[in-house]
């Protein structure tokens, strides 16, 4: 069950404080496991340190899409969809013409984060229907925010005391509360609303006018850490690997707007384009096991059983800060599918899924998506490799199929024994020189990650 308790703020604080420790632990683990000769790593690291960020290809169209912080969630979804992008930097409209990125940008909004917010808000609105009136529910002007003070699935007025006016307002919009679920338990309320529930959340107030600014902090995947055009590609690679950023904004010194937006996927595409170069061909010809991959062992892989709830899968992704899970069956972890955080969009794009999302199993979710869309490859078909596969073939699969991870399986039974992510592949080629960010940016990486 999608358990959302009042301790969310404390959880976020713990995540911030442990962020650096987890980054250091990840990189230390990789350094101890990867088998690429240190001399070659140092040579590559030095080479990337000499390549300026300005040499990296610009985003398609040469213009980075930005979203103002006071843009509504519904309009934000439209912008992301129109431009076929999954995330965008959020600009502070109160910063005016400031060229200081700390004043000008508030973070990066991710489409998946928006859908998580909508689903959690939907649960709260459903719970509001368990009370006979807003007064009985203990709702008042001084109530806490809509994303707190609720244990999902609880019933009765006491369970939703402190629920925000906004949640009840959405739940009763259009007179739905009059005949669809009021006085029932939260699960029944959500099921009864069905497709109307979908309409309420996306099209009715107050959710329609909720802004990006209001959800950005609670639902951000990573801090906003830009680099300058004259920074080195080594800095970008470290941010995308050790410091687990999904994308790095590039800012031209003295200019107010973002010049470029470098993603993990874009870097892998460029690596794949290095075929024919001696250094790349030497490394890519080696098997993943000879290079120490996968860095994550089988017992460290977070997975989901096909008969578990799809909401549990997305909750695991959020809790573990990962972008996807292998779908497995049985105690031996036989892989039968894959779900990524990007797939959460299907819960909103397909009303037949949304109408029953609280009881939907992973298998039901995958089957429904397959039966209703033509673009199903990334949803159900797991991209796999063997321990004997070459790194070059893994990079090619990641680049050509535009996926973020490839699962390492046994030759006979397709049992998951590891996972190789974009982050892992980038980490293979580099190490972090002492005090790199302190020297390069003029302030500690600790300060950057706390933004």
UniProtKB/TrEMBL annotation:
<protein>
    <recommendedName>
        <fullName>CBS domain-containing protein</fullName>
    </recommendedName>
</protein>
<dbReference type="InterPro" id="IPR046342">
    <property type="entry name" value="CBS_dom_sf"/>
</dbReference>
<dbReference type="Pfam" id="PF00571">
    <property type="entry name" value="CBS"/>
</dbReference>
<keyword id="KW-0677">Repeat</keyword>
<keyword id="KW-0129">CBS domain</keyword>
<feature type="domain" description="CBS">
    <location>
        <begin position="296"/>
        <end position="354"/>
    </location>
</feature>
<dbReference type="InterPro" id="IPR000644">
    <property type="entry name" value="CBS_dom"/>
</dbReference>
<dbReference type="InterPro" id="IPR050511">
    <property type="entry name" value="AMPK_gamma/SDS23_families"/>
</dbReference>
<feature type="domain" description="CBS">
    <location>
        <begin position="376"/>
        <end position="439"/>
    </location>
</feature>
